[in-house]
Automatic annotation (TrEMBL):
<dbReference type="InterPro" id="IPR052342">
    <property type="entry name" value="MCH/BMMD"/>
</dbReference>
<dbReference type="Pfam" id="PF01575">
    <property type="entry name" value="MaoC_dehydratas"/>
</dbReference>
<feature type="domain" description="MaoC-like">
    <location>
        <begin position="18"/>
        <end position="121"/>
    </location>
</feature>
<protein>
    <submittedName>
        <fullName>Dehydratase</fullName>
    </submittedName>
</protein>
<dbReference type="InterPro" id="IPR029069">
    <property type="entry name" value="HotDog_dom_sf"/>
</dbReference>
<comment type="similarity">
    <text>Belongs to the enoyl-CoA hydratase/isomerase family.</text>
</comment>
<dbReference type="InterPro" id="IPR002539">
    <property type="entry name" value="MaoC-like_dom"/>
</dbReference>
Length: 156
């Protein structure tokens, strides 16, 4: 028997299961992304903002801010639509690693795996443990980590 999945806008804690894997669409990182992020974060480190200096550095070109990659990963998850209506609170970012640089022109995607699901002690919400992996167009892992999320339960 085929299980009918709820529309993304109506997902609740009960619709998630340990082992589920979701993959986002891609998003290409632009020079404008890096410049904008540097502007509003005030992080103008030359490794991000100085093409001449970065050309002589470890990566040979400017790289995106690590937290820009994390922010893009969160935005890509948002585009899935499955966490939007049920999200109550982000609980923490654990073990986030920056494994490879993200550069202008990279197209990144995020894969999220549900690794844990439990009801809160009050029973009125659920906790999802999620492992996120951000990869580039060559399937190189550029960032990874775990992000817990408190989500709403379906009303009885």
């Amino acid at each position: 028997m085929t299980q009918e999945m709820p529309s993304p806008a109506s997902w609740y804690f009960e619709d998630f299961a340990v082992g589920q894997v979701f993959r986002t669409q891609g998003r290409t990182i632009t020079e404008s992304d890096i410049v904008s992020f540097a502007g509003w974060s005030w992080d103008t480190n030359p490794v991000h903002t100085d093409a001449v200096s970065a050309a002589g550095g470890r990566f040979g070109e400017p790289i995106a801010h690590g937290v820009l990659g994390l922010s893009v990963a969160m935005g890509l998850l948002s585009r899935l639509g499955i966490f939007e209506a049920c999200s109550i609170a982000l609980l923490g970012i654990d073990g986030w690693r920056f494994e490879a640089p993200v550069v202008v022109g990279d197209t990144v995607r995020c894969t999220v795996t549900i690794t844990g699901a439990r009801a809160t002690s009050k029973g009125d919400a659920g906790i999802l443990e999620r492992d996120l992996v951000l990869t580039n167009q060559d399937d190189v892992v550029v960032q990874r980590g775990s992000i817990g999320l408190m989500v709403a339960r379906r009303q009885a």
